[in-house]
Design goal:
- This protein is mainly α.
- It has a single domain, classed as Tetratricopeptide repeat domain (Serine Threonine Protein Phosphatase 5, Tetratricopeptide repeat), CATH 1.25.40.10.
């Protein structure tokens, strides 16, 4: 499934989260982080009374541990999302996102880029947008935000190129396209 998932599955995992202005459903529908390798050592020979029940119990414990890690990640992401989009506390949001330990995730990297841009840290924003696009070259939200970044830098031609990329990914009716187009045309704030 990678970094994409259907909206129905995502809503089931995350529950309803109202999308603030300039927030995409993608930002609130991220999949959990990959499972971390187990640090427990397995015995070289199984105990004499090892049964299927023991194996099932171990598998259930691993699944439970993974679920806790996933829930922690999603809770942390949601908290950062609120800090950034609703409270406009960009510094605190960046700290929250970095504390998740999944900077390579396109939604995390993109949101750090967005926050950096809002703080006027354009070099940082560029770094994070590019990191998000390495993780997912088809991340429409990042292309849109990066296009806004270019528009803020005065490079409207590059912003239009990114608008065409967004259109190729999600059409002309998606939020990412409408927002970037509005910025380029001057009818919407960055």
């Amino acid at each position: 499934m990678g970094y994409r998932m259907t909206a129905a599955l995502a809503i089931g995992l995350l529950g309803f989260v109202a999308a603030p202005p300039f927030a995409s459903a993608v930002d609130t529908m991220i999949p959990p982080p990959p499972q971390q390798p187990s640090t427990t050592q397995k015995p070289s020979t199984p105990p004499a009374n090892n049964t299927d029940t023991t194996k099932k119990k171990k598998k259930k414990e691993d699944t439970s541990q993974q679920k806790s890690s996933n829930e922690l990640f999603l809770d942390g992401y949601r908290a950062a999302h609120v800090l950034i989009y609703k409270q406009h506390k960009y510094e605190a949001g960046i700290a929250q996102l970095k504390a998740l330990g999944h900077d390579e995730h396109p939604d995390v990297a993109n949101l750090i880029g967005y926050s950096s841009r809002k703080l006027g840290r354009y070099d940082d924003a560029k770094y994070w947008y590019e990191k998000a696009l390495v993780a997912d070259p088809d991340h429409a939200r990042t292309w849109s935000y990066y296009g806004m970044w270019h528009a803020e830098q005065g490079n409207v031609l590059k912003a239009r190129d990114y608008l065409a990329k967004v259109q190729s990914l999600c059409g002309t009716t998606c939020r990412e396209y409408a927002e970037l187009k509005g910025v380029i045309e001057g009818t919407r704030l960055y």
